[in-house]
Write a structure and sequence with these properties.
Structural class: mainly alpha
CATH topology: MetI-like fold
Radius of gyration: 21 Å
Low-confidence stretches: none
CATH class: Mainly Alpha
Order of helices and strands: HHHHHHHH
Number of domains: 1
CATH architecture: Orthogonal Bundle
Number of strands: 0
Strand content: under 5%
Helix content: over 70%
Largest sheet: none
Mean pLDDT: 87
Distance between the termini: 52 Å
Number of helices: 8
Length: 216
């Protein structure tokens, strides 16, 4: 028990970084995903083609490769003009990646909305953005929430990939303690902390699904 208490502060410090990456990725990627999703359903062909390519690229290559490219590859372009700090590089790569996944989810939700909803909004003299905000978005959220929930849970686990660019996240803290003390206890604690985080998120997501299930 004394050993657990001794290493717990370093693990919690790593968990704090993990949560920061998770929260900022959610804050950045979900709104951007909705915007890109709207673009994917647009009738403007050049925009739609560009966004389709972006989604295909982000979903078709590993997030680990994207992290390495953003941190190690971008500085090679323009004589270091695109150099990012480790944390900024991780956040940039995560937001780019998860925006693409959320965009596909929102695209499916948007396409499931009956065109009559838009026609009704026109009759009520609502602008396009008023229609999206007041009519379409609440219905889309109800449809896509389970899929978004799955990606949110995946994001918690994917955050461990920042270890590859040297960030001191939860997994790195556990690995350092395991290598130093030659024991599996730190990794077991890391697993427990991840399970606690996913359990809390699962509970919150279920409450949200129940809330939107009453929406008519």
């Amino acid at each position: 028990m004394s050993y657990v208490l001794a290493i717990l502060p370093s693990l919690l410090e790593g968990a704090q970084l993990t949560l920061k990456i998770f929260l900022w990725t959610i804050i950045g990627s979900i709104p951007l995903g909705l915007i890109v999703g709207l673009g994917l359903t647009s009738r403007f062909v050049p925009l739609k083609a560009i966004l389709k390519f972006y989604v295909w690229l982000m979903r078709g290559t590993p997030l680990l490769l994207q992290l390495i490219f953003v941190f190690y590859g971008l500085p090679l372009i323009g004589n270091g003009a695109f150099t990012l700090e480790r944390y900024d590089a991780a956040l940039f790569a995560f937001i780019l990646n998860y925006t693409a996944y959320f965009a596909e989810i929102f695209r499916g939700g948007l396409q499931s909305i009956d065109r009559g909803q838009y026609e009704s909004a026109k009759v009520l003299r609502l602008s396009y953005w008023q229609t999206i905000r007041k009519v379409v978005t609440p219905q889309v959220l109800k449809i896509v929430l389970p899929s978004i929930g799955n990606e949110v849970i995946n994001l918690v686990k994917d955050s461990s990939l920042v270890y590859v660019i040297g960030l001191g996240d939860l997994l790195r803290a556990g690995n350092v303690a395991t290598s130093r003390d030659v024991t599996l206890v730190p990794l077991i604690l890391v697993g427990v902390i991840y399970l606690l985080m996913t359990a809390v998120l699962t509970f919150i997501l279920r409450k949200l699904e129940q809330h939107y299930s009453y929406w008519k």
